[in-house]
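User: Response regulator, Selenomonas ruminantium:
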Amino acid sequence: MSKLPVILVVDDDEMNIAMAKSILEMKVRAEILTTTSGSDCLNILQKRQGAIDLILLDIAMPGMDGLQTLSSIRKNPDYADMKVIFLTAAADRETIVKASQLKIADYVKKPFIPADLIARVEKQIFPPIQNQEVNDIFKALDNLGL
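Assistant: Predicted structure for Response regulator:
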């Protein structure tokens, strides 16, 4: 039995955390962790030795904001490829450009639209098979006469 993917939701607003967690628990087979600050996010990453598949990270938080948190994550070579989806109430162009430079996987506007959140999360933790892989599978089946 394979282990469930792990998603860490980081938002200073407990209501946003509760909503995201509720939506994800209903529709996505994953272990959901939550925290309310960027520094706690970094501590969880360290304690779990990076064993997190996706981080949903609020941009606007007191203390260490989402951009600062992501910058700290990217500075650690062990987490350089960590998948991060930004959560934002105001998706202004400047913030999205800064986030893109830090290699975000995607962003979701708040308040959440459940179907949008689920689709963006599933895209990151359950990526579709690439076309070449599909072609290779069909070719192998043809060679086997199936």
